[in-house]
Amino acid sequence: xxxxxxxxxxxxxxxxxxxxxxxxxxxxxxxxxxxxxxxxxxxxxxxxxxxxxxxxxxxxxxxxxxxxxxxxxxxxxxxxxxxxxxxxxxxxxxxxxxxxxxxxxxxxxxxxxxxxxxxxxxxxxxxxxxxxxxxxxxxxxxxxxxxxxxxxxxxxxxxxxxxxxxxxxxxxxxxxxxxxxxxxxxxxxxxxxxxxxxx
Length: 199
Description:
The chain is α+β, with helices and mostly antiparallel strands and about 200 residues long. The chain has a single domain (about 45-190), classed as Apoptosis, Tumor Necrosis Factor Receptor Associated Protein 2, Chain A (Sandwich), CATH 2.60.210. It is built from 4 helices and 11 strands; from the N terminus they run H-H-E-E-E-E-E-E-E-E-H-E-E-H-E. It has a 5-stranded antiparallel sheet with strand order 2-3-4-10-9, with no helix packed on it. Strands 1, 5, 8 and 11 form a 4-stranded antiparallel sheet that branches. It has a two-stranded antiparallel ribbon with strand order 6-7. The termini are far apart.
């Protein structure tokens, strides 16, 4: 009886693991996004470019010492995509503000924001519009010195960020609004499968 019971327990554990693997491989958020982007079973269309997202950078997020500080702070949601402050890296001469955009995918259809320009041949490249970043103070005034003096980066996945020279830390420490215009809005639809019958 003990051996039989152990056999059933092992079988149940294996079935649970297989179910979890099948879900992650086919029904998870990451899996649907990957298949939509690769146009594997999905039609994918560009609806709008660029799409902008604005957020306030709290001066308290500036690290006191050099190094990487992880945050995972929710900054907002736009087109079924949640944008997070992922991390801030303080270096000797600059700080890097890293963000992560996480689309919430549905199996059949939906829309999401993506930082990559997906071509018809399924290849992709970075989407870098001329005015990718804008900066404003608390009064909504444009911070022109920053417009011509910053660095940006993309990847991996749907992560992106901006690097600012420490000579502008007084401006950032006073409270600053960032406007990022590097998103592309995509729409996706699951392709209909043709079922054949023998009767």
